[in-house]
Amino acid sequence: MKKKFIGLILSFVILLVTGCKSNDVRLHETMQKSIAWLWHQQSPDGGWHSQTHAVLKDGKALTPYILYHLLQIPEDEFNRPEGGVQRGVEFIQREIRASMTMSEDSLPMLNYPNYSAAYALKVLCFLQQDTALQNILVGHLLREQFIEHRGITPDNLAYGGWGYGEPGLRHGEHGHVDVSHTRRIIEALTMKAKAEAKAKETPTVSRSHALTLSRFFLQGVQRTPEDSRLYEGCLSRKDLPYDGGFISSTVTLATNKCEPVLLAGVGHHYPSYATATCDGFLALHALGMTDTKAYADAKNWLEKNQDMSTIEGLSKDDPEQWHEVMHYYHWAVRAEAMTAAEINGPWSKELERMLIKEQHPDGYYINPIGGVNKEDDPLMATIFAIQAGIEVKSEE
């Protein structure tokens, strides 16, 4: 009886101590668990391989993305497994180099070729490794931009942007173009530019030119009033609503997750929504456009729309249910954008609570209905959650 009583007292004390932990401490423990889980998923070949989606099974798209974001975690906060980073780098060097052939006329044999190239470049720039492969990746990304060398002129809303990277597009064709790809490639090329500046190397004129021209695409997806170009279904820009937010694309309209609204005299209007606005804002931030009206307007949109529990701008009645499909992606880009914009508010505490609440006991995250956005893969959902957690911790 006495032992049972002592056991009850100990259980009560443990419960009391656990319950008294601040959310900041609990978030730290939550992130530690997720980071450890994700490192444990690294294969002996150095890559991260999806067991859920065939398109991500080879690890060529997942590995650069996951490794880059794990590298953003300070080593004094989490001890990386011995050799883990280098194995990941060697996977990128081996697999990405083999897929990115050396000829300008040949096609990269990659799934998500532009995403893979952008994040491989970011990893190598961050670690200051393999300048030769960095230059191959830069060359590929510059060739992929939709500008004059691809038959795309400034009157085209695709001008200055990047997309998926479909092979075999004819001269003058643009394929899939969106703000998500464009943002990542801008960030990668900007990282390369900063690395060269630090090393006092001569900047690449073509890369600087590409970054300048990317602003044309961003103007289009922000629906800047000064931009007179019409997208399909738009009859007039004169009365088109402008709120500083972004959509994903004014070119491949099906990419947009918002439902178009038919306005008299205007035609179809695509409302701004949170994930696209975060990506657009982060692209402007990477370009150093912090003193521009475009930047201020996008920041203002984010300040007015801070709900972390849903993706603002998306309809909950949409049969595709994008506001739930992109659940963890929203957390990741929202936290990155809010931190970059230096927006304080309840968003960080709200996100902190959700990160703690939704973690699986083993340390991973998963979105069962997120298949279209690959969030039903715990590798993808977990790295999104870690991205969000890193930013929330930086706000503390």
Top keywords for this entry?
14 helices, 2% strand, 396 residues, mainly alpha, two-stranded antiparallel ribbon
Arithmetic mean of pLDDT: 91
* N→C terminal distance: 46 Å
Percent range for β-strand residues: under 5%
- Structural class by sheet pairing and helices: mainly alpha
Q: Any overview of this molecule?
A:
- There is one protein chain.
- It contains 14 helices and 2 strands.
- The chain has 396 residues and is mainly α.
- The protein has a two-stranded antiparallel sheet with strand order 1-2.
- A hairpin with a 3-residue loop joins strand 1 and strand 2 (267-269).
- Helix 2 (23-40) runs antiparallel to helix 14 and helix 5 (113-127) packs parallel to helix 7 (179-198).
- The longest helix is centred in the middle third of the chain and has 20 residues, at 179-198.
- The termini are far apart.
Topology:
Elements: H1 2-20, H2 23-40, H3 62-71, H4 84-99, H5 113-127, H6 131-144, H7 179-198, H8 205-222, E1 261-263, E2 267-269, H9 274-286, H10 293-304, H11 322-325, H12 327-340, H13 347-358, H14 378-395
Antiparallel strand pairs: 1-2
Helix pairs in contact: 2-13, 2-14, 3-4, 3-5, 3-14, 5-6, 5-7, 7-8, 7-9, 8-9, 9-10, 9-12, 12-14, 13-14
